[in-house]
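FIELD: query
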Amino acid sequence: MLKFHNILNLFFLCLVKPIHCQGQCFDFESGALLSTGGVPATRSFLACQIVAPCPAANISSVVSIDIYTSGVVRLARVSQDKQVNVFQSDKGLTLEGVGRVKKNGVSYLFVQFNRNTFTAETVFRCVVFAKNARGETFFISSTTSLVSSAKGGTVSNLMLPLMLTVSQTFENHKYLLSRLSGFTSQEAIQYCENFGGYLAEINSEEEFGAILDFIQYFMKGYSVLIGGTDAAVESSWVFQHSGSPVEFFKWHNGEPNNVGNEDCMALAFWPANGILMNDIPCSEEKVGVKFLCEIEMDLK
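FIELD: result
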């Protein structure tokens, strides 16, 4: 298993030497999210990434990235200084995307969706509009399908860092906030383990404050899953990773209330009271719930 700092080293290698990034500057891949132990994955992803400048492809800067299906149906788009625009979501497709376009550096567009949204044979196309050294606009494209990933898999090591926002260091720990939402507790745990970490365990007022300083700018109506659970014994909260009893609480008034078998702990925003703890279901794939990993930094 690659540790967090090793994955970041790979990521920054592509920033510094894009020509040697898997032998190319442009990559479009698909796969299944979090298929383990022979259990079919419930979601799939499309990940399009390009690094500029890229002399081998005559690319000086990137203008926009689009992902299409069925030839002309656009699923998502991201362009310079613009947020990701996800299309077709009003037609019953459960799509969610993150991405960015930088004139120089790594640009990417990442889309996830329920696996039964498209057939395995569906062909997807990523189209990147770029400029050459003379300022002329042109496009390059690549196709992929879900057939090659029908048995599942995980996001590639180069795409993983693009899925999370990384905090500053707090007492030799860092925190990783997911950009996407809709994961169950077990899925979130596996993502954290991919980085050698675990769902965040908040042990003090100081740590709680440091986490709030980090996540408050990214909440925007989301809840954030953390590491506490009372699944074994109701109202007896323990950390899922360490197994230690939870001793620091910052519940909102009336919480935890266990409405609908809510056995996992999350941070949620209330307009009148700010960010406080709440209990939520562990197994529900609910859009609007992100997760927070905690990484113990190796400072040797």
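FIELD: remark
The longest strand covers residues 43-52.
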